[in-house]
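Minutes, project huddle
Topic: does the predicted pose make sense with S-adenosylmethionine bound?
PN asked that the exact inputs be recorded in the minutes so nobody has to dig through chat later. Recorded below.
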Amino acid sequence: MARDQKDYYYRLAKEEGYRARSAYKLLQVNEKFNIIKRGDNVVDLGAAPGGWLQVAAKLSGGKIVGVDLEDIVPIPGVKAFRADITRESTVDLVKEALGGDADVVICDAAPNLTGVWHRDHAVSVDLCSSALKMAKKLLKPQGNFVVKVFQGDLFQGYLNEVRKEFSSVHAHSPPASRKESAETYVVAKKMLTGPVRRGDVLDVQIEYLGKSGDGVAMVEGFAIIVRKAQQGEKLRIKIDAVKPNFAFADILERKG
Ligand SMILES: C[S@@+](CC[C@H](N)C(=O)[O-])C[C@H]1O[C@@H](n2cnc3c(N)ncnc32)[C@H](O)[C@@H]1O
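Predicted holo structure (tokens), as shared on screen:
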């Protein structure tokens, strides 16, 4: 079954001119989550041989930049060069090539597998952490991020890190991923740029009541909707959900 599936996407890639069967994973992720839109500027981290770059170029038609440790045979409309995504200097190189910020950062990077499972998993999560760090520096506010992760005991912690930075986050295995594969894709939409994150505890004063009757506190110009709070109250609150333009919080303690 898995063998047939591999052969199916392998053959399809050959037939349709994609350099790697992984192209279908991005096409399927995009079909479900609408990550790349027409005109988007896209950065692909760990992009060789270039299947995802071909898909990104087709879906967006905008500026596309790809980096990898390996050379990438040129693709029309795509700037690609050798760089290590774990090095901080790579952010500047990508920004320069893109000539601005990105709408979407995608990362299918994978370590050379040693077969020692916990080691491969840890290196994969390290690469994903580098990708998240880069995405935070490269993306426009509300930009999207897709990253491949090998599942294992560090996966949940990584997912939580991504959840802090984006408005909506899903873990998804597209049909083109082999059934026996431990890979999954973390699909994160709408990068958050407000001053608070889920789980933050802070002291605030309620400035006014919103339409819903809940209290509203302002932090650096960003509205925090505090359930069951009254105007003027001084409170210790805990943020439990963050949206691009506001956050929700619960009261932990009423202060004098
Ligand atoms: C599965 S392949 C990517 C396939 C690609 N998405 C495609 O469709 O053609 C994973 C790539 O990650 C790259 N990679 C691994 N570590 C990297 C690093 N530190 N910096 C840049 N690329 C890296 C590898 O060289 C390899 O080409």
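Observations noted during the meeting:
- The chain has two domains: 2-191, 201-255.
- The first helix runs from residue 2 to 16.
No decisions taken; revisit at the next huddle.
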